[in-house]
Predict the structure.
Amino acid sequence: MTNLPPPEPRSSRIGLDEIIGIVVAFTTIGTILLVTLTQRDKVFNLSRSIGSSATNRTTDATEPLTPPEPQPSVTLEETRSPEPKAIDPSTSPTPVTSLPAGTPKRVPSSLPLPVPSTPIAEASPETSPTTTVETVKFADVPEDLWARPYIDALGTREIMRGFQDGTFKPGSSITRAEFAALLQKAFKQEPKQKVPNFKDVSANFWALPAIEETAKIGFLRGYPGNVFQPKQKISRVQVLVALASGLGLTPTASSKEVLQTYQDAEQIPNYAKQQVSAATKAGLVVNYPNPKLLNPNRDATRAEVAAFVYQALVEAGKVEPIPSKYVVQP
């Protein structure tokens, strides 16, 4: 048997090939770890992006969409105010102010909008119990004038006006044309008869409409020959006849007895006796200073006409009576 030599002791040094192999192994392992970590980060970021997109889509799906049409006049500043501003109903709606980029598009659905109050309708003078009418005062009508209440009443109602200087001229006479204009303002009645074509009233005469209207409703008549004499001063008896005719007053069976109230009854023209009797019975006659004197043929003053016309309005039920001791009581 051959004796083999004892094995040589193994060297503890690492060879070059082993070092290279270790380096390559660690390099490979490091590369694998680096790649693995990089891919995990990308996957993590991708998951976050997907989750964020899903969250945004969910939020957008649950939020109300901004309407394309302009909303009522509510601005961003108004939504921050504790009390909303009133909206002028006469202006057109104002679009909502656009919000900065990135701000969620939310439209407040429960914002209280103020409703403009409806103005209270003003009451007309005819229906309002508190309405007062300012009394017209004339410079030449003293407080103690017997016709002052009648003049003030007609002046306040603009039935009988004064002159540009603020006077009334109560003692002045009045023409037939002026009396027709006064009657037109005081009375509105249905026409009773046709209007004759007065030869002495031209088409451009200022009082033609009043003359025609008062003739239609039976207050005034012309003279024979279709003349009216518009510039003629009207007498007291003519005023009473016109008022009695226009109101349709009829005399009573005791008309003669009524006329005996006047001390100058014999001066009353025959054509006027029936109407004067009816006017007296109805309380239209106001005689100053003596109620027993009619003075039928004297020119009527503006004060006397005011008293006669007012009493005619009382008879028509348009005004309240004015107490006076000069109203004739037959």
